[in-house]
Design a protein that fits this description.
Oligomer: heterodimer
Largest sheet of chain A: 3 strands, antiparallel
CATH topology of the largest domain in chain B: Beta-lactamase
CATH architecture of the largest domain in chain B: 3-Layer(aba) Sandwich
Number of helices of chain B: 22
Structural class of chain B: alpha+beta
Number of domains of chain A: 2
Number of strands of chain A: 5
Number of helices of chain A: 17
Shape of chain B: elongated
Number of domains of chain B: 2
CATH superfamily of the largest domain in chain B: DD-peptidase/beta-lactamase superfamily
CATH class of the largest domain in chain B: Alpha Beta
Distance between the termini of chain B: 129 Å
Distance between the termini of chain A: 14 Å
Largest sheet of chain B: 5 strands, mixed
């Protein structure tokens, strides 16, 4: 810390205010979600809002502790913390308790703890630490591989716990890597893959009737269309053949197009395999439901359907605080955890949804802008990791409550009920705030 | 190296894009699309089922046989029931507090959220008194229903009754919910889908006190009930009433069919009951009474009672033998009483005379000729071949099988099979002498009265019948069943049947100016006196009506069954009854309390 400037002066209070607003709004909505006439005291610790109050208070203590910790600690111990957390992830596989189908919890009496929530922080630090080392360039294949390994280890371990949702969060590091120089093609390829995945599944059982009573499967049409598009891309280059440069271009483009085509086709055929053989039943039905391939509003689609009813019934201005009817009568399951956004939608209406989403987007943009003002690469990369993780959580969580993403139970940061998740996000955020407070101190 | 810091803009752009997509989506489901709101409003909306009027049933002349009268069912939704003045409530609907608790418990067992019947069919006064205080009784509501009303007090078994639908049916058929009514027997049951119509729903807004405030969105989401289809029956209700009057104090049945169409004109079972007894709150009590009655009034004898056909079966035997060329119309047999007992009459007789005098030994010989046609030198195999052929013919007369009348309780009767005898005597160990009593309509043969009336219709039509039915059909829906016997033989039988009435055993069946063709039967009955049986059709040419009458334990067919049939025939063909003495004799006869005049 530079002399003469206290910590109080150098930390970014704006982000802390947003954080506090989100946490308090979350708590108010948890209260509304489980509110009933029998339990009205906010200090009723038998109810989840009572417990969440404890989580919030302890989270603030943790936040202060993080701010009080020497920043060098985080820089120096990036790797050890990562190793420690990976060991915890392995340990939970052996000693953990299975709750709700995934073996991801350590239980100590009344207190349970989910290491996956903290592994995000550890991974974020390790990746930041690695990429900020001198002479590390992401354009090197080796760098990419090491980086991906750092991400793949927790992803794999969490997948083994049976918590596919939390595992997928690690894919969000693609944003971080993109910022650090990963080709934008990776983002495009990801987008392309998602589109192909959806189109393939939607066309799965379709047949298309052609003239002369020829019936073909939707998939073969898709492959043909892909091939046609590729050749269309090639045509402009063929005209410029006289130009020598154009010829080289033609060769390059052909190679790219052919490779893309081969990858796409094999991807299309592997989607079926993955969908039918790798995914579990409930994952399959959730995807079916989302893409409206097969609908079952009382089974797999129940959560989403009820969630949409709750949110949709809020209208423009909502039903008023504690006035939600859908949420009161337990129509929406997981109301205070994964589906907390329903309460916002129902009781506060579109106005409330707008405020919450705007707040999150502002929060994310602010983190990105804060990350960009860092002199230290470590701090910047860490900031991007933080933004990526929170963005993924927000997008998937809210997306699933309004039927735009499959239901993969991950919490809404700062909002959802749960100590591990609140603590995890708080540590992530406040480490970054701490790093940011020292942004002018170091170049590393 | 390129400046990567510009990439922040791409990342921010992605964040903002996702945020905007979410907001658009939210705007759509929260503000534009109101289908989600409707789902959520279930809590403030009350869906009241609007019951359609059940279809009426008219007789063939357009007279109403069944109509509806209004009734009020008190329903309860246990979830909405709050503390109430139980005493006041119980006094209003006249029940005790214990009954109240039992009823509420029963409703809770069915469902907390769906309405179920608390007290059925309140009368108008109770309803009026209750309606004023309804606001005090949360969770209770009144459904307007309609009850069946039968102005002629007739055709009870035929029309059937409706009762509250059972839990088993509710589970199977989502159309029904607790407290609905469903046809349980007769026409009400077989035409349930047509009669019930389609339920509608009215949506109301209710306030916190569960009081109806207004119709929701001016009825935009309401559906109107579609009334049930009115049915036109083939029954002539006046003929039915006369039939029931004639059969009063007798056990038995009477079925009348229009031969050319298969339309059932009357279907009487006796003793019967007043159909109005099985309506409304008194239904279950009366039902129990009827069920315990030793005379089994709920048993529709016309469709379910099975009797031996007796001598009437000789007509069928004669036709089969003639068609099989086992005999010719001129074949004569002597009345050999050593073969089988008979009464005194001139002999030897030909086919015509044998029908007129109902000679038992003659049909002993006829049946022997049918079964043993010399197709095989082995008498057992020959019998088997002959029996198979005979049984095939019998089947063409609609015997031993359900005719497919549009009332579901029909029995099939019994025509023994080759397998049946094989089982008793061993394969190819039985011959004509074993089964000879079938030849005169006794033994294992059983027929139901409807089949006998249908038989009369076959004779009237000279060789075919149309599936009998009680509700009018389009001509295209009628299926004609042909016997494989030539018309000339039927003409011979018709001549003989006319003779039976003119100068034979059924002189009591004569009607002035109408040629009635008939045949008596006396069905032996191990439990007591013989059943009196008679079938007839009239007039002889272009017949309009075919009748079968069974009067249980009343003796000879000509004595009771024949005159009853003649009265029905006369009434139907002339719309009046000319012979008052004949009518009185029948009306006074009482075989249940045993006060019948022998002659």
């Amino acid at each position: 810390m530079r002399k003469g400037i206290s910590l109080i002066d150098s930390i970014d209070w704006g982000i802390i205010v947003i954080y506090l607003v989100l946490v308090l709004m979350g708590w108010a909505n948890i209260y509304a979600a489980v509110y009933s006439e029998e339990h009205q005291s906010i200090f009723d610790f038998s109810q989840s809002y009572g417990k969440q109050l404890i989580w919030i208070l302890t989270a603030i203590v943790i936040a202060i502790a993080v701010l009080a910790t020497d920043r060098q600690f985080f820089v120096a111990f990036g790797f050890p913390i990562y190793v420690l957390m990976m060991l915890a992830l392995v340990a939970v596989l052996i000693f953990g308790k299975e709750i709700g189908g995934s073996k991801s919890w350590f239980v100590f009496g009344a207190f349970s703890f989910q290491p996956a929530e903290f592994a995000k922080f550890a991974t974020c630090m390790a990746v930041a630490k690695y990429l900020s080392l001198l002479n590390i360039k992401i354009s090197n294949l080796k760098t990419k591989l090491v980086c991906m390994t750092l991400i793949a280890i927790p992803l794999g371990l969490i997948l083994l716990q049976g918590d596919a949702g939390s595992a997928l969060v690690y894919l969000s590091f693609v944003f971080l890597m993109y910022r650090e120089g990963l080709s934008g093609n990776f983002l495009l390829a990801g987008l392309f893959a998602i589109i192909l995945f959806i189109v393939t599944l939607v066309l799965q059982d379709t047949t298309i009737n052609l003239p002369f009573e020829i019936v073909v499967s939707g998939k073969s049409v898709l492959v043909t269309v892909l091939a046609l598009i590729s050749s269309l891309i090639l045509i402009p280059f063929i005209k410029n053949r006289s130009n020598r440069g154009g010829f080289t271009m033609l060769r390059d483009v052909s190679v790219v197009v052919v490779i893309t085509l081969i990858l796409s086709v094999s991807f299309i055929y592997s989607v079926d395999y993955v969908f039918d053989e790798v995914l579990s039943d409930h994952q399959r039905s959730r995807i079916n439901e989302l893409l409206a391939i097969k609908s079952d509003p009382k089974g797999a689609g129940y959560n989403v359907n009820q969630s949409k009813i709750a949110i949709g019934s809020g209208g423009m201005f909502g039903k008023g605080y504690l006035q939600g009817t859908q949420t009161k009568f337990d129509f929406v399951p997981e109301q205070s955890t994964d589906f907390i956004f329903c309460t916002v939608g129902e009781e506060w209406g579109f106005l409330g949804s707008f405020v919450v989403i705007s707040l999150f987007i502002t929060f994310l943009i602010k983190i990105i802008l804060m990350a960009e003002r860092q002199r230290s690469a470590f701090s910047r990369i860490f900031g991007y990791g933080l933004a990526s993780i929170i963005f993924f959580h927000v997008a998937v969580n809210i997306g699933m409550t309004i039927g735009l993403a499959p239901v993969i139970g991950i919490p809404l940061p700062f909002f959802s009920y749960g100590g591990s998740s609140l603590w995890g996000f708080t540590i992530l955020l406040f480490v970054f705030i701490k790093l940011d407070a020292y942004r002018l101190d170091s170049f590393r | 190296m390129q400046d990567l810091s510009s990439r922040k803009e791409i990342v921010i752009l992605i964040f903002i894009t996702v945020g905007i997509i979410f907001l658009i989506r939210l705007f759509y489901i929260q503000v534009i699309d109101d289908s989600y709101k409707l789902s959520a409003e279930n809590n403030v909306l009350r869906y009241v089922t609007e019951y359609p009027a059940r279809g009426l049933v008219y007789d063939r002349n357009g007279k109403v046989m069944v109509y509806n009268q209004p009734a009020y069912d008190l329903m309860v939704i246990p979830k909405h029931v709050k503390t109430l003045d139980t005493l006041d409530f119980c006094n209003l609907i006249d029940i005790t507090k214990d009954e109240f608790l039992v009823k509420l418990k029963k409703a809770k067992r069915y469902s907390y959220y769906k309405p179920s019947i608390f007290q059925e069919q309140l009368n108008s006064e109770t309803y009026a008194a209750l309606q004023e205080k309804m606001y005090k009784f949360d969770g209770f509501l009144v459904y307007n229903r309609s009850l069946r009303k039968y102005p002629y007090n007739a055709a009870a078994s035929l029309l059937g009754y409706i009762n509250e639908v059972s839990g088993r049916i509710i589970e199977k058929d989502s159309y029904y919910s607790s407290g609905d009514y469903i046809g349980a027997s007769g026409v009400e049951k077989s035409y349930e889908k047509e009669l019930r119509g389609k339920k509608g729903v009215k949506v109301f807004m209710v306030d916190v006190f569960n009081r109806v405030k207004s119709s929701f969105r001016e009825g935009a989401h309401d559906t109107l009930p579609e009334p049930g289809t009115n049915l036109k029956s083939t029954i002539d209700i006046e003929l039915q009433q006369l039939g029931e009057k004639l059969m009063k104090n007798k056990r038995g049945s009477l079925v009348a069919i229009e031969p050319s169409t298969g339309e059932i004109l009357a279907m009487v079972t006796s003793p019967t009951y007043d159909p109005n007894l099985l309506v409304g709150r008194v239904r279950s009590e009366n039902y129990l009474k009827l069920q315990r009655d030793t005379l089994v009034p709920l048993f529709n004898r016309a469709l379910m009672a099975q009797y031996p056909p007796g001598s009437i079966f000789k007509l069928v035997q004669a036709l089969i033998a003639l068609q099989e060329k086992a005999i010719t119309p001129q074949t004569m047999f002597t009345c050999n009483k050593r073969l089988v007992n008979c009464h005194n009459h001139p002999y030897p007789l030909d086919v015509f005379g044998s029908i007129q005098h109902s000679c038992n030994p003659y049909y002993y010989m006829v049946f022997k000729r049918i079964l043993n046609q010399g197709k095989s030198s082995n008498i057992f195999i020959d019998t088997e071949i002959g029996f198979a052929k005979w049984r095939e013919h019998i089947g063409n007369f609609g015997l031993g099988q359900r005719l497919g009348v549009d009332i579901l309780s029909e029995q099939r009767g019994n025509i023994p099979t080759i397998e049946y005898y094989d089982k008793i005597y061993g394969r190819r160990h039985w011959k004509f002498e074993t089964v000879y009593s079938l030849g005169i309509g006794q033994g294992e043969i059983l027929v139901v009265p409807l089949q006998m009336a249908n038989l009369a219709a076959i004779f009237a039509n000279r060789g075919y019948y149309i599936t009998p039915h009680v509700i009018k059909k389009n001509n295209s829906d009628m299926d004609i069943h042909y016997t494989k016997i030539e018309e000339k033989y039927f003409n011979l039988v018709a001549d003989a049947m006319a003779e039976v009435v003119m100068r034979g055993t059924a002189r009591r069946a004569q009607v002035d100016s109408i040629t009635v063709c008939g045949k008596t039967g006396t069905a032996e009955n191990p439990h007591g006196e013989d059943h009196s049986v008679f079938i007839a059709f009239a007039p002889k040419y272009n017949p309009q009506i075919a009748v079968s009458v069974y009067v249980e334990n009343s003796g000879f067919g000509g004595t009771w069954a024949a005159p009853i049939a003649s009265l029905i025939i006369e009434k139907y063909l002339t719309r009046r009854l000319s012979n008052q003495a004949k009518l009185n004799r029948i009306l006074e006869a009482d075989f249940i309390h045993k006060t019948a005049e022998p002659n």
